[in-house]
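Below is a filled-in request sheet from our internal design queue. Each sheet records the structural input a requester submitted and the sequence that came back. We keep these sheets so that new team members can see what a complete request looks like end to end.

REQUESTER: design group, bay 2
PRIORITY: normal
MODE: inverse folding
CHAIN LENGTH: 927
BACKBONE (tokenized):
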């Protein structure tokens, strides 16, 4: 009872409050290395390149860097470092700086990169006047100043795009041996070193810091940049603001209940990639480090005290953004992305960390969740509720209560006694089940996983080398050490169908609490001096024989989901595509899982924040993002719930979820009119399923975001640089969800003035020119969504109860004409669930419209899929000169077609062409 009582106190202290307790989380002043490094400003960097050591071979420049004591007439070398500058394909450079002979190896992030980056060539152009100039094969150039050390990166147009160490804030704190005793005269210094360098306290938590101070820092300048973006997750704007008057942005994966809006506080995700943009060019940096990181930003165009002073001195507005990364440990390892358009830098980043693989198609449909559906009868009732109310749904979710008393890979023997039958009832309707598996393991005698982990040494260790014990949902818990290959192998095998009875290929996984969340830990997470597996190396003992949690913290969840992903692949021999959802995020997460924005609240501000948070994550590689529709905490009234479903229907991951203590809120529990609007929003999503699926296929190829900021497609329009309530899906749909209470109109920005872009309302086909802001009237049923002129979008209007049942249903093809009366688009088709597409069992087609012809051609002629789908209708919007007749030509057969012209909105409808999508076809128009 003592154990249960303590757990209850801890849980209530976290969940009963509906506002984050800032006292549970550090400020920069309370984070030892941030407090130590942030004030550091030097007139001249201590770091200098030894020009006599420079060597260029293949794609790498290597050299020695030293720090010097500049006091007195003769300089004295203090520390030696090894510099490595690598040229990589696609206009990317990598800069690495590590101690030449560290006391023990420093940690290097392991899993973020999608394999070893591909090499470009590197040529030494000149070495004179204390400067080195090198260039890659594409004409990108780097000038390295030797003393003080500075790197200037020029894009292929000759523009200076990125500068490293321009503000002399490069720091690599060398590892040292702790001084046990020093002279009496230095007693004060000894006390200071003992207290600050070798230990640290936060509230009641003590961090032993056995390696001492080992922080790294680097400043990055973006000359001529208007804005910078990235470093999610945070809840403020997509474009990053100057931090000089407050806290830096913090990247440290944390379980923050009821997180704040408009905040730079750390929450669940930490993706250390930063992009800059101006009308002239785009660039970026990827800070390859998994330790706690703080990022300062100074945008000189901001109306701040700093910019005002600069403007006073320079006599005008200075266009430049400076940033500074500060991490608690690791090495300097930074990738410089030289663009020069937004799409270029986004693609360069995903080329390093990987694009998301093609997800199973059902994962793009609607998901219904709650903490918790209590038993099998309730699952059946919810499932039947969708059918009874004619609302499509693909997935039912189960939170932690499905388990046998919070023991993962088990089922509650009473409430979920027949999981196989329960799953079969869902799959018979084309639906799936998702269950939760968290990384904390209940410490209970007789629980097979705990017994195995204890006996085989699979848990993370505490600072004394014993199994670490913390508190989470099960009570006393320990945490699997996924960095150990032995642990990973064990964990992967837990997903075998024999090891997890009741599961099948139609049961998928939700990984939550994997920051990791520890209710009684410092900042609700694992102590930094816990120990993780490190591969054994000769001569490495004691401190050198393990990594501390401080080194790997932001990667912990990434290792967790990589194991889950592999376990699901292995369980059926790699035939079916897995779906995993994660809360903890880091660089590379997209290769394994989708993401949601965590424990939000039923408030308008959180609905608004969901848009900018997902746009930021998408630009940072993680396109499969959404929020808990309706909010996790509290209860959404009818208008908010309606608007959230309408917005969620146009975000990649579309799931409703709610807290255990909130009122039930399945769509049919609202009044009939509201339920009807929710049904309409969900059905709109299903009509666009093949469009979404095509976008994710194309992302898997080119790495570009599915959910895009406007400036990605319109990089010359300055107005778009700070718009984050409106976004694009691919380059085809513009979405401006209604995000405020009682709205009767919204301002929609229509980009594309210079290119004479047209935007067609997807409801009325009314055309709007790309001419900036326009006020659009909305009622409670209206979501402003617009198809870009010049595009073709496939739709399926016969919405069924699950997307899996719509595979062979007919298409409606919507053609939106541009100023030249042309349009084109793409369509991807496969079986939606297996990896057979990798064996050319798919269709990737292009639909092209000109006034004379409309054609459907296969982009990849070597691929084929025997779809039975066909074209039911073609809608051509913006037609000014309609044809008199049309005929379909497919496999040599010519078929006359019927057409109807709607003059009110210039729409021509080609009725029932019945063209089969398994074969190419074309339509000829005559006038």
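RETURNED SEQUENCE:
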């Amino acid at each position: 009872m003592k154990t249960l009582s303590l757990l209850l106190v801890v849980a209530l202290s976290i969940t009963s409050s509906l506002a984050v307790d800032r006292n549970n989380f550090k400020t920069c002043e309370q984070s030892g290395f941030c407090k130590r490094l942030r004030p550091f400003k030097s007139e001249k960097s201590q770091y200098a390149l030894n020009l006599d050591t420079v060597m260029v071979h293949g794609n790498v420049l290597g050299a020695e860097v030293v720090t010097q004591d500049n006091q007195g007439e003769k300089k004295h070398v203090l520390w030696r470092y090894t510099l490595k500058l690598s040229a990589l394909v696609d206009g990317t450079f990598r800069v690495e700086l590590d101690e030449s002979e560290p006391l023990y190896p420093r940690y290097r992030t392991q899993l973020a990169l999608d394999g070893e980056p591909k090499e470009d060539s590197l040529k030494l152009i000149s070495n004179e006047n204390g400067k080195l100039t090198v260039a890659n094969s594409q004409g990108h150039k780097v000038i390295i100043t030797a003393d003080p050390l500075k790197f200037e990166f020029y894009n292929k147009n000759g523009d200076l795009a990125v500068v490293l160490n321009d503000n002399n804030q490069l720091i690599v704190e060398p590892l040292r041996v702790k001084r046990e005793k020093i002279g009496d005269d230095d007693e004060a210094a000894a006390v200071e070193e003992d207290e600050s360098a070798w230990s640290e306290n936060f509230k009641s938590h003590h961090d032993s810091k056995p390696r001492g101070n080992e922080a790294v820092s680097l400043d990055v300048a973006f000359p001529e940049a208007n804005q910078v973006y990235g470093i999610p997750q945070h809840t403020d704007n997509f474009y990053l603001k100057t931090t000089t008057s407050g806290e830096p942005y913090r990247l440290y994966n944390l379980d923050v209940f009821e997180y704040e809006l408009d905040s730079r506080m750390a929450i669940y995700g930490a993706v250390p990639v930063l992009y800059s943009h101006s009308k002239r060019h785009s660039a970026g940096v990827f800070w390859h480090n998994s330790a706690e990181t703080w990022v300062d930003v100074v945008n000189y165009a901001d109306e701040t005290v700093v910019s005002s002073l600069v403007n006073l001195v320079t006599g005008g507005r200075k266009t430049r953004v400076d940033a500074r990364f500060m991490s608690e440990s690791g090495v300097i390892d930074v990738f410089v992305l030289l663009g020069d358009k937004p799409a270029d830098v986004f693609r360069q980043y995903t080329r390093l960390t990987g694009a998301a693989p093609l997800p199973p198609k059902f994962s793009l449909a609607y998901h219904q969740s709650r903490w918790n559906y209590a038993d099998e009868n309730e699952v059946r009732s919810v499932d039947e509720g969708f059918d009874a109310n004619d609302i499509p749904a693909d997935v039912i979710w189960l939170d932690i209560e499905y388990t046998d008393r919070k023991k993962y890979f088990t089922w509650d023997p009473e409430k979920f006694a027949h999981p196989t039958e329960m799953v079969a009832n869902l799959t018979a309707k084309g639906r799936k089940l998702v269950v939760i598996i968290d990384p904390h393991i209940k410490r209970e005698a007789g629980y097979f996983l705990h017994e195995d982990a204890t006996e085989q040494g699979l848990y993370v260790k505490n600072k004394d080398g014993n199994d670490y014990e913390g508190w989470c949902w099960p009570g006393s818990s320990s945490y699997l050490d996924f960095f150990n290959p032995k642990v990973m192998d064990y964990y992967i095998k837990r997903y075998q169908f024999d090891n997890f009875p009741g599961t099948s290929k139609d049961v998928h996984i939700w990984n939550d609490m994997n920051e990791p969340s520890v209710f009684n830990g410092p900042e609700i997470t694992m102590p930094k001096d816990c120990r993780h597996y490190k591969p054994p190396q000769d001569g490495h003992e004691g401190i050198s024989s393990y990594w501390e949690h401080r080194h790997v913290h932001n990667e912990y969840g990434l290792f967790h989901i990589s194991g889950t992903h592999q376990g699901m692949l292995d369980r059926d021999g790699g035939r079916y595509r897995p779906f995993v959802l994660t809360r903890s995020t880091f660089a590379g997460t997209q290769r394994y899982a989708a993401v949601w924005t965590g424990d939000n609240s039923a408030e308008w501000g959180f609905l608004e924040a969901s848009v900018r948070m997902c746009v930021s994550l998408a630009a940072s590689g993680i396109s499969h993002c959404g929020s808990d529709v309706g909010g996790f905490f509290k209860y959404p009234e009818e208008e908010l719930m309606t608007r959230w479903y309408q917005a969620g229907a146009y975000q990649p991951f579309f799931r409703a979820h709610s807290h255990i203590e909130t009122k039930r809120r399945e769509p049919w529990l609202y009044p009939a009119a509201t339920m009807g609007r929710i049904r309409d929003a969900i059905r709109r999503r299903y009509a666009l399923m093949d469009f979404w699926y095509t976008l994710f296929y194309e992302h898997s190829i080119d790495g570009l975001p599915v959910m895009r900021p406007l400036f990605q497609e319109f990089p010359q329009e300055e107005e778009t640089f700070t718009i984050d309530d409106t976004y694009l899906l691919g380059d085809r749909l513009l979405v401006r969800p209604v995000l405020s209470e009682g709205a009767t109109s919204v301002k929609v920005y229509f980009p594309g003035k210079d290119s004479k872009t047209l935007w067609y309302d997807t409801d009325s086909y009314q055309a709007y020119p790309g001419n900036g802001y326009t006020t659009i009237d909305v009622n409670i049923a209206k979501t402003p969504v617009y198809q870009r002129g010049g595009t073709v979008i496939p739709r399926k209007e016969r919405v069924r109860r699950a997307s899996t049942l719509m595979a062979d249903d007919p298409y409606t093809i919507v053609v939106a004409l541009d100023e030249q009366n042309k349009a084109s688009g793409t369509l991807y088709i496969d079986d939606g669930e297996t990896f057979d597409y990798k064996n050319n069992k798919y269709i990737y087609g292009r639909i092209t419209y000109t006034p004379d012809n409309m054609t459907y051609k296969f982009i990849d002629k070597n691929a084929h899929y025997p779809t039975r789908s066909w074209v039911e209708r073609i809608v051509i919007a913006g037609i000014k000169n309609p044809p008199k007749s049309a005929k379909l030509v497919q496999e040599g057969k010519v078929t006359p077609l019927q057409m109807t012209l709607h003059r009110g909105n210039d729409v021509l409808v080609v009725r029932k062409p019945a063209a089969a999508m398994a074969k190419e076809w074309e339509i000829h128009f005559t006038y």
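SHEET NOTES:
- Confidence is low (pLDDT under 50) at residues 1-17, 187-192.
- The chain is about 20% helix and 30% strand.
FILED BY: M.R.
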